[in-house]
Structure formats: structure tokens, C-alpha cells
Design goal:
It comes from Leeuwenhoekiella blandensis (strain CECT 7118 / CCUG 51940 / KCTC 22103 / MED217) (Flavobacterium sp. (strain MED217)). By secondary structure, this protein is an alpha+beta fold. 30% of the residues lie in helices and 29% in strands. It has one domain (3-149).
Length: 154
């Protein structure tokens, strides 16, 4: 399975693809474990998870999560280049990411597609703006989010 990873934010972000992991001395499993351990608060204990202003107006946490999922899906569909998918039919990429206490994607793992499709998914996410970070006891915190990108290539 292919994997592509983006670490950092803004101009300093570095994207590494599976073929380069060894030459970059990159241990994805160790970094994923470190990423999980760096999150001090579990999602269920948050005041709210990462969201947008519109999503925070929803009445329940469940509705806020649904709203944010729609925001992600809409943004990905707007910016994802499905010409990077070479085989017609249904496709699925799995995304794991960390949104920091400033509302920026600072770690994105895309897997399950071609390296080009994974890179397109990472670039699509990096274009999303207006994310409000998760909060715990009134303080901004880092959060982990996992979701699929599913589509149909004709």
C-alpha cells in the first residue's frame, strides 16, 4: 500500500512519499505513535473538536461533527484532482491528520491510492481555511481526525 505524508505547516511543510521513506530516514509508525501520544485530550473530553464557525452554531456535538465532515468533504471535492486516479471505478483513500491548536493541518497521512492521488488529497486539505481548533477547558488543543476520501472515477 502506498503512503504519502505531510509534516509541518505553511511553507515549511515537507511531503514525503513511501518510496522516499528510507532515504529520508523516516519511520512512519514511530511518528504516528508520537502523534497519538502528543494529543493530551481524547475527543469525547473536548469542549468541541476542530470545527468551522458555521459548525459551532449546530446544537449538538454530533451535528457539529457531521457539519465538519461535510466541510471536509466539500473542500476535498473542490480541490482534489481525480485525474490522478488512473483506474476507472470506485476508489478510497484513508486520511489521518492532526489539526494543531491554531487550526492548521500539521500532519497528514494519505494512504490507499497512487502516490499522485495521495499528494492531491494532501494538497486539497492544505487549501482548506477557516478551521477553528479543538477546545478543552477553554484552551485550544491539537486534535486527531480520521476520514476516508471515496469517489468514483469514470
Amino acid at each position: 500500500m502506498s503512503q504519502s505524508v505531510s509534516i509541518g505547516k505553511g511553507e515549511e511543510a515537507k511531503i514525503i512519499q513511501a518510496k522516499d521513506f528510507e532515504s529520508e530516514n523516516f519511520d512512519l509508525e514511530a511518528i504516528l505513535e508520537e502523534m497519538k501520544n502528543s494529543i493530551a485530550v481524547k475527543n469525547q473530553d473536548l469542549d468541541h473538536s476542530a470545527a468551522t464557525k458555521r459548525c459551532l452554531k449546530e446544537d449538538s456535538r454530533k451535528e457539529q461533527r457531521i457539519c465538519f465532515s461535510r466541510f471536509l468533504a466539500s473542500g476535498v471535492s473542490k480541490y482534489f484532482d481525480d485525474s490522478t486516479i488512473s483506474i476507472p471505478g470506485k476508489y478510497k483513500l484513508n486520511i489521518r491528520c492532526k489539526i494543531d491548536s491554531e487550526g492548521d493541518f500539521v500532519f497528514i497521512v494519505a494512504e490507499g491510492g497512487s502516490p499522485e492521488a495521495e499528494l492531491s488529497a494532501i494538497m486539497a486539505l492544505k487549501k482548506l481555511k477557516g478551521i477553528i481548533p479543538g477546545k478543552h477547558n477553554g484552551e485550544n488543543v491539537d486534535v486527531l481526525i480520521t476520514f476516508p476520501i471515496i469517489g468514483l472515477k469514470r
